[in-house]
Amino acid sequence: MTPDEALGPLIDPDASEGQDTAPGELLIPEETYLTSGVHIGTQQKSASMRRFVYKVRFDGLHVLDIRETDRRIRHAAKFLASFPADRILAVSQRQYGQKPVRIFAKTVGAVSYSERFVPGCLTNPNLADYFEPKVLVVTDPATDQQALSEAVSIGIPVVGLCDVNNETRNVDLVIPANNKGRVALATVYWLLSREILKARGGPAADAPFTLTIEDFQAAL
Question: How confident is the model at residue 7 (pLDDT cuts 50, 70, 90)?
């Protein structure tokens, strides 16, 4: 069973878009999710992401269900917290994802490959940048395809931020989110960082989390 399957039943992929989300307390106020644009998807929609769509806006943009995003951030944080920190690898070739990935890695003790991912980093021991992670976090399965492909080939699980247009067949745990927006990416990685530290327990879990979403934001 994959981490995604372990989440249990999701929104019925055959149900009509625009259905109401379940009630419950969110990790951050709903307004913060909305102002960050985490929920704003693309006009194109893949079949595998349909189940996460809340509605379609007047301009054709698909809107993601923020409660499902919130639920999966919680689950991803607990899942990632179960691995040795220095064996978690986070990658981003998207410009606005590079700083969030670096700050995320520094905060939780993980390793980050931002900007260009050198082919063979996970599969070729002769490379100077060779690394053997236990789990991979990708900012976008499309732009981070090389890292994703190598993770699949060595058999490690993949946590992926997936926008409405992404294919998810090689992602074990999908976090439905806008993976192109500057503030949206900062928000998701900030939440993941905070929740991973909480999930680990110990002194770090009790210490105030002083970093802000702005600390994770890439420069304009």
Answer: low
- Report pLDDT digits (tens) over 81-118: 999 999 999 999 999 999 999 999 999 999 999 878 99
Among left, alpha and beta (phi > 0; psi -120 to 50; other), residue 146 is alpha
Task: Write the CA distances from 133 to 85, 91, 117, 159, integer angstroms.
Answer: 10, 12, 14, 13
pLDDT for res 5? 64
List pLDDT tens digits, range 173-203: 999 999 999 999 999 999 999 999 999 987 7
Cβ proximity of 41 and 165 under 8 Å: yes
Q: Minimal CA–CA distance to 195: which of 75, 99, 38?
A: 75
Residue carrying structure tokens 């920190």: 85
C-alpha distance across the termini of the chain, in Å = 41
Query: What stretches of the chain show up as alpha helix (H) in DSSP?
Result: 30-36, 66-81, 95-108, 145-154, 182-200, 203-206, 213-216
Domains and CATH numbers, the chain: 20-216 (3.40.50.10490)
Residue 66 CB neighbours (<10 A):
21
CB 177 within 8 A of CB 165: no
Residues 168, 174: Cα–Cα separation, whole Å: 7
Q: Cβ distance 44 to 60 under 8 Å? A: no
State the pLDDT at residue 115.
75
